[in-house]
Amino acid sequence: MIANFREIGGLPVDGNRVVKKGLFYRSAMLDRATDEELAELKKLGIKVAYDFRDAKECRGEAPYEKIGAEHRNIPATYKNDKLFKLEKGGSFAMLFDQVTWRDVAPTYEHLPLGNEAYVALMKSIVKDETPMMLHCTAGKDRAGIGISLILLLLGASYETVLEEYMRSTSVQPFIESVIGERIPKIFHRYAFKHFHAFFTVYKELLDTSLNKIIEVYGDYDSYFEKEFGITKEIRAELIERYTEEA
Fold first, then answer.
1. Does residue 1 sit within a domain?
2. Is 148 contained in some domain?
């Protein structure tokens, strides 16, 4: 199955405009997609698939040739000290620890800054390498922030960005099934309760990323220019290219 799949076409932006349809897609990993699902995905004409996972996450068959897209695997992961220690501790560590959204927050604080994955993404947008898709494992964190940045670039309000981001709550059963395959069954109930922050999305985490951008740069115009070389003039051109009157 292709979990957490959707596009952002039709979402409102400033000036009584909306994002054009058929340009920007997002999803969880494609490893479990059926041939029928991949055939439907191919019909979308996706040129580039950005895969924000790191090497250890890429375990399944790479299906990108089947959808006719160029696969660009550029990890967007930031090493969070607590989560790194937990990962190294394996199943045994899960018996004595838990993770809240506050533990995940340092990852979100660093994601939008100096991230080569998003630099590559923004270069693609400037070059008009669309239609494109973004995914990570669950499609809620790294892909979620990537899509949020695209929406902000095109002039979407915070409310629109938040509403789109929170739609990934639907992916929780998929994440539990993936995680469940990697840990002993005896730990499932405990893990799903004490590591709930891995399985869903939180408004506070999106806020962590966006607040960090404003803290460092003051406004989004400065952020896009200094992080990605997208000036106000280029941004205006992108808005004209990728949005249309509502």
1. no
2. yes
